[in-house]
Amino acid sequence: MTKPTNSPDITPRKNSDGGFYSDVVKDHFFHPKNFMEDESAYKADGQGVVGSPACGDVMRVWIKVDPKTERLTDCRWKTFGCASAIAATSMMSTMVIENNGMTLEQARQIRPQDIMERLGGLPARKIHCSVLGDKALRSAINDYYRKSGQIDKIEIEQGRVIDKVLKITDHDIEEAVLEGADTLDKIQSKTKVGTGDPSCIPEVEQLMKFYKEKYFG
Fold it and tell me: Residue 55 catalytic?
């Protein structure tokens, strides 16, 4: 995981799907906010990681928390991935500490759609790059609760885990179908499910069929 440098992935050109990188995306890629420079010297209250180098993206998040208010006072990160993944994690780290910091409960509610909105959108083929940072953040929050002895506040990712590498759940697949993903390719574009754990793809296809019939007949 290294700090990003200029990359052809972020050039201001039109993509094959007709999308552009926004100026905000380019700024967070070329000038990432809250990037972890030296984790050995950082005293984190909680840390989380999600992803695998084998599937292309790894996101690691460190947080500091005010124990009296349970607000985030700092959020650092490292990401191995494309420009969109880097920009999405940088934006997420900005969102959770701005305006005196989110409470841990507020931070838990962040979803990829919130990050993409602040980025000014992402090209359709890059949307999957924004879906891991929020999971790594929630993992770090759980780690904080674990370390501070607040075991009752730990929340398992909603739903049953389908992709054990990326921690994608059946609820994530259900949401993707509800948002219009009616093929495996579209579900993977939204969630990246199966790129971390290909053995789960048959189950993903079964769930897709079930949810399509449940909601759309």
Answer: yes
